Amino acid sequence: QVQLVESGGGLVQAGGSLRLSCAASGRTFKSHAMGWFRQAPGKEREFVGAISWSGGRTTYADSVKGRFTISRDNAKNTVYLQMNSLKPEDTAVYYCAADRAYYSGNLPYTEGSYDYWGQGTQVTVSS
């Protein structure tokens, strides 16, 4: 079992930066790939990016590639989403999630692969 709590959201001007954190509890955090998703008002939740259980591999949605970076610190049971060059279209509630598999080499991009979710943190980018 993994419990996840996101933090770090807020209001930022276009072009600015934010770093989201996702603090995890549970003995198995280190064995799970972690994903970030977001949901804008009136839209479906969409994949942002994912990081392998070791932190050695990442993947990103095309819409954020080159601007967002995912990292993790397994000693602190925390995964991060560094967001740079933010745009108004990045406005959304951001969620972190833990993959259901253990020590998997995959980086899932579909919601159905993730069993554990945080409550979300709001990010608002003003123009």
How would you portray this structure in words?
This protein has strands at residues 3-7, 10-13, 18-25, 34-39, 46-51, 58-60, 68-73, 78-83, 92-99, 114-117, 121-126. The protein has 127 residues and is an all-beta fold.
- Tell me the fraction of residues in β-strands, as a range: over 45%
What are the low-pLDDT stretches, counting only 5+ consecutive residues below 50? none
What Rg is obtained from the alpha carbons, in whole angstroms?
13 Å
User: What is the subunit organization of this protein?
Assistant: single chain
Main attributes of the structure:
11 strands, globular, seven-stranded mixed sheet, mainly beta
Topology of this structure?
Elements: E1 3-7, E2 10-13, E3 18-25, E4 34-39, E5 46-51, E6 58-60, E7 68-73, E8 78-83, E9 92-99, E10 114-117, E11 121-126
Parallel strand pairs: 2-11
Antiparallel strand pairs: 1-3, 3-8, 4-5, 4-9, 5-6, 7-8, 9-10, 9-11
